[in-house]
Amino acid sequence: MDSPLVAAIEAGGTKFVCAVGHGPDDVEEARFPTTCPEETIQRSIEFFNEAQERKGKVNAIGIGTFGPADVNPESSTFGYIKKTPKPDWSNTDLASPIQSALGNIPLAFETDVNAAAWGERKWGAANDLNDFIYITVGTGIGGGAVSNGKIVHGISHPEMGHLRISKDPSVDPFVGSCPFHGDCLEGLASGTALEERWSQDPSELPSEHLAWELESSYLADAIINITLTLSPERFILGGGVMQQDHLFPMIRERVIARLAEYINVPPVENYIVPPGLGAQAGVLGSLALAQDLLK
Ligand code: ZN
Question: Could you tell me where the DSSP H helices lie in the chain?
Fold first, then answer.
């Protein structure tokens, strides 16, 4: 097989997905809940050691993590989870214990959404596009950006989940669920926000419920703001909330209406799309990042 054998982790706030493989058609996976850092990191290392006994030595590792995370290789805390509301995980060195247990192989460390974007570019719905956005709408909301063929970084990584979104309090009096900003995008449109606002599992809300009008309105505003900022060629929308398929046409309709022909975007069915890799985007993206280190 041409592609090298590598390891990958999609480190989520609720679960870790570890994988060893050569690509989407050959990947061995383990999933377990995210508990305290020591236990979760140890479990990851044990999986990799066992998998290596069966498949051979891995040559690099890619980690796509929940954030905020230090993704700057020049930083003394590269590979750390930064200050997070998630208990026990603030200022945790996630990457180096795993990297050193695997023999200090090359390491790629990214946000989960940037990793997912990279996976979609290599094997999924981005088809080698150089400018596109991956957004996940799940427990939280995150966005990864590829611009000019590169993952976007800066002082940190993009935090599109916390964009400010216009809201009419007479229609939606909910104050928002974000612990930092209240009614930012994540505070209004994440799965957590839906559940708090409607006191119900969002997957059980009927498709004609007001919840989805609001949801598609907030996500459409975010897409418009990002369209106007980065001029991407495509938006890929993944995550648990986007499993509600009726959201796609609602979002597309609002985006087109609100852009008001100021910008002509590609045909909207190709502009706002689900992930080609489904729920595997994050872990396969981390695998792709690891392979790219070996080119
Ligand atoms: Zn926020």
Answer: 37-55, 95-101, 112-123, 185-189, 191-198, 210-230, 247-259, 268-271, 281-292
**pLDDT tens digits for range 119-156:** 999 999 998 899 999 999 999 999 999 999 999 998 88
Residues 164-200: pLDDT tens digits?
999 999 999 999 999 999 999 999 999 999 999 999 9
Q: What distance in angstroms lies between residue 143's CA and the mean position of ligand 1's atoms? A: 13
Gap from CA of 120 to ligand 1 centroid (Å): 26
Q: How much distance in Å is there from the Cα of 178 to the middle of ligand 1?
A: 5
Ligand 1 centre to CA of 141 (Å) is 9
Interatomic CA distance for residues 272 and 202, integer angstroms? 22
Three-class SS state of 6? strand
What is the 15 CA–ligand 1 centroid distance (Å)?
Answer: 22
Other C-beta atoms lying within 10 Å of the C-beta of residue 54? 8
For residue 33, the CA-to-ligand 1 centroid distance in Å is 24
- Note every long-range contact of 157-160, with CB atoms under 8 Å and residues 24 or more positions apart, other chains counting: 157/67, 157/68, 157/69, 157/71, 157/110, 157/111, 157/114, 158/114, 159/67, 159/68, 160/133, 160/135, 160/185, 160/222, 160/226
Quick check: bond before 106 cis, omega within 30? no
Does the model's pTM come out above 0.90?
A: yes
| Alpha carbon distance 135, 185 (integer Å) | 12
